[in-house]
């Protein structure tokens, strides 16, 4: 199976690193990046073919992953259309670009898929949702994304919300990690030690959440010893309406995804 990866920025590189780490042979991946100097650096780092010419990169690809900014997706699809194999599958990783727009820009008969994944692809721990026209065989695309994490199939109508929760989601946790690390340092901890402690706390807590049959609200209760420190922290979070703030942030990201439909 030959893969083309068009656009190797922050997300594209996370996906690339994850796929290579999963054992996908580098000879099966053709990528493009801008400018030419970055393409050369990436070729050196990952031992794959990286150019700047998108039509050449897709010429033999079975699956084409598009990881350029949303506004660049349409022109790029128009440019690669004539070079695609007739049975190629084109997967857009962009936020807010609807399937209808992808299909409009591609030659008739080419399968278009929307994927929303996240930066944890680099650690092969991404959460990916795939949306495609009804009846599309997603087996090969699912197998590809399973290499870099967990994949689910979704209705396209859910993709903006999924983008907020799954795509932007890691940023919510990094925001929390940053705030907790800063609080620890402000309280007198040595910065490197604070970072190690907070990072491990988050990884451990997430692994425990994933392993546990109980959901997050039940786990909160297990940590909050009556009359103890966690109760005090949770009361403070509630007093600051943090739950509302998180819901508003998810709504803001979802809304922005909707606005991108028109870009
Ligand atoms: N970052 C993330 O965690 C996530 C991002 N996404 C989606 O992934 C896409 C990329 O986002 P992100 O990685 O953050 O953005 P970046 O700006 O980091 O990466 C985009 C890359 O695409 C390059 N590029 C632009 N146009 C072309 C082109 N025509 N051919 C080849 N390369 C091109 C850019 O080069 P240059 O800068 O020189 O223009 C840049 O290196 C977006 O659509 C975004 O919605 C989805 C989920 C998570
Ligand atoms: O911020 C963005 O628009 C992209 C999509 C999800 C994560 N990053």
Notes on the protein architecture:
This protein is α/β, with parallel strands linked by helices and 263 residues long. The chain folds into 2 domains: 3-154, NAD(P)-binding Rossmann-like Domain (Rossmann fold); 169-260, ProC C-terminal domain-like fold, CATH 1.10.3730. The chain contains 12 helices and 8 strands. Strands 3-2-1-4-5-6-7-8 form an 8-stranded mixed sheet, sandwiched between helices. Helix 7 crosses helix 12 and helix 8 (169-186) crosses helix 9. The protein is globular, with a radius of gyration of 21 Å. The model has no long low-confidence stretch (mean pLDDT 97). NADPH dihydro-nicotinamide-adenine-dinucleotide phosphate (NDP) binds next to helix 1 and helix 4. Residues 156-260 form the Pyrroline-5-carboxylate reductase dimerisation domain. Catalyzes the reduction of 1-pyrroline-5-carboxylate (PCA) to L-proline.
């Amino acid at each position: 199976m030959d893969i083309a990866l068009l656009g190797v920025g922050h997300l594209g590189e996370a996906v690339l690193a994850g796929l290579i780490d999963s054992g996908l042979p580098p000879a099966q991946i053709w990528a493009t990046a801008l400018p030419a100097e970055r393409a050369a650096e990436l070729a050196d780092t990952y031992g794959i073919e990286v150019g700047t010419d998108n039509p050449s990169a897709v010429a033999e690809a079975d699956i084409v992953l598009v990881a350029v900014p949303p506004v660049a997706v349409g022109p790029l699809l128009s440019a690669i259309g004539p070079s695609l194999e007739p049975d190629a599958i084109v997967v857009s990783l962009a936020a807010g670009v609807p399937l209808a727009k992808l299909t409009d820009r591609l030659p008739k008969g080419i399968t278009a898929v929307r994927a929303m994944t996240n930066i944890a692809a680099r650690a092969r721990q991404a959460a990916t949702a795939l949306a495609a026209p009804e009846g599309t065989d997603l087996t090969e695309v699912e197998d590809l994304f399973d290499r870099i994490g967990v994949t689910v199939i979704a209705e396209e109508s859910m993709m903006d919300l999924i983008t907020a929760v799954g795509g932007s989601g890691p940023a919510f946790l990094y925001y929390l990690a940053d705030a907790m690390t800063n609080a620890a340092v402000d309280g007198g901890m040595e910065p490197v030690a604070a970072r190690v402690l907070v990072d491990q706390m988050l990884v451990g807590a997430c692994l425990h959440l994933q392993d546990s049959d109980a959901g997050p609200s039940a786990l909160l209760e297990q940590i909050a010893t009556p009359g103890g420190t966690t109760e005090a922290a949770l009361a403070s979070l509630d007093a600051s309406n943090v739950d509302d703030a998180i819901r508003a942030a998810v709504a803001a990201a979802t809304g922005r995804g909707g606005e991108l439909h028109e870009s």
